[in-house]
Structure formats: C-alpha cells, structure tokens
C-alpha cells in the first residue's frame, strides 16, 4: 500500500509535509527568469557586436555588397517574371546639409511606361554622402544632367537575360581607399564584389 504523506494544520491551512518531486516542480523564480533574460541579452549583444565588426568595413565595401545583391535579385526577377526592369540613379540633397548623396531605385516597364516595383520587392536606396558613384554606360562615362525632367535608366534588364553594359565604381570622396567595381555585361553576367568570387569564376 502506498505511503500517505503526513499533513498538519498551520494557521488554518493544511500543509503536506511529504517532500515533492523537487523544487523544479514549483516553476522558476523571478530571479531565475531575470537571470535568463540577462544572459540572452548579453549573447544578443555579443552577436550584434560581431556583426558590427564584420560590417565595420568601409562604406564602399558595404554599399557594393548591397548593390550586388540587388543586381542579382533584379536579374532573376526580370527573367522569371518576363519583365523589363530598369535601374535609375540620381544624386539627392541631404536634408539639413549642402551635401548630396547618390540614390538608386528600380522600375519595371509596362505598356511602354516605367512604374515602381511592388513595395515588397526593392525600395530606393540612398548611400552615404561620403560615397561617390561613377557610372560607365555602354563604354561612356555618365554625366548626370539635373535639367532632364525624366532621367533615363542607366541599366535595363530584359526578360531574355540580356542587359545594358554597365560599370559601377564606388569609393569614398577625398580618401585614398580601395575602389569597388561592379560590372554587368551585355549578356547579363554580373562581376564584382563577392557573390562567392563570382561562383569561383564559373569554375
């Protein structure tokens, strides 16, 4: 016959004097929960710092990586959706400053009209005012004309995968830092910063 735990009456309450399965059956205390939260916070901070250290590379490096990702995405989107997609570039004034920053955005061509991409795809990106962007479009250095009412695209991707020949150079203004160069050839192949060294130069 199973033993029955002893009980005693204290202040009008019945208290079981038999030991239970252990303190963990009673749950965690507030201090234990706080300790776990603090530990998680510390781990998150360490991870964030590690990412910051990895991302503390100079501006051109980070911007080139971001642009390369966008180019890869757009090239695939144009082919899969059977759409013409264009890249538009222009310098914009920095709010509260006399400086300007290079911005680029993407549009698709429908019914011979350029229109914005869906909001859940690619949004406009403006780089730091310390970053200079030089563009060579089909062998000619692009000279931005602010008087044009509608800026033409510097890059057009067709559903067939072909694209405008484009060379993009990013570097810091007034600094002797390494320049980051990304090229897109007329067959739509993208070369430059990373992408696993352009897939190890296609083997």
Offer a few descriptive terms.
alpha+beta; 3 helices; five-stranded antiparallel beta sheet; 203 residues; 2 domains; disordered N terminus; minor pseudopilin epsh fold
- What is the CATH architecture descriptor of the largest domain? 3-Layer(bab) Sandwich
Straight-line distance between termini: 76 Å
The CATH class name of the largest domain reads Alpha Beta
Which structural class do the helices and strands define? Answer: alpha+beta
Number of discrete domains: 2
Give the fraction of residues assigned to helices: 25-40%
Please state the CA-atom Rg, rounded to the nearest Å. Answer: 29 Å
- The CATH superfamily of the largest domain is minor pseudopilin epsh domain
Strand content: 25-35%
Sequence-ordered SSE layout with sheet pairings:
Blueprint: E1 7-10, E2 13-16, H1 30-54, H2 59-81, E3 84-93, E4 100-110, E5 113-116, E6 125-126, E7 131-137, E8 140-141, E9 155-157, E10 166-172, E11 180-184, E12 190-191, H3 195-202
Antiparallel strand pairs: 1-2, 3-4, 3-9, 4-5, 4-6, 7-8, 7-10, 10-11, 11-12
Question: How does this structure look, described?
Answer:
- This protein has three helices and twelve strands, in the order E-E-H-H-E-E-E-E-E-E-E-E-E-E-H.
- The protein has helices at 30-54, 59-81, 195-202, and strands at 7-10, 13-16, 84-93, 100-110, 113-116, 125-126, 131-137, 140-141, 155-157, 166-172, 180-184, 190-191.
- It is 28% helix and 30% strand.
- The longest helix has 25 residues, at 30-54.
- Strands 3, 4, 5, 6 and 9 form a five-stranded antiparallel β-sheet that branches.
- A hairpin with a 7-residue loop joins strand 10 (166-172) and strand 11 (180-184).
- The chain starts with 6 loop residues before the first strand and ends with a helix.
- The chain has two domains: 27-56; 59-202, minor pseudopilin epsh domain (minor pseudopilin epsh fold, 3-Layer(bab) Sandwich).
- It is an alpha+beta fold.
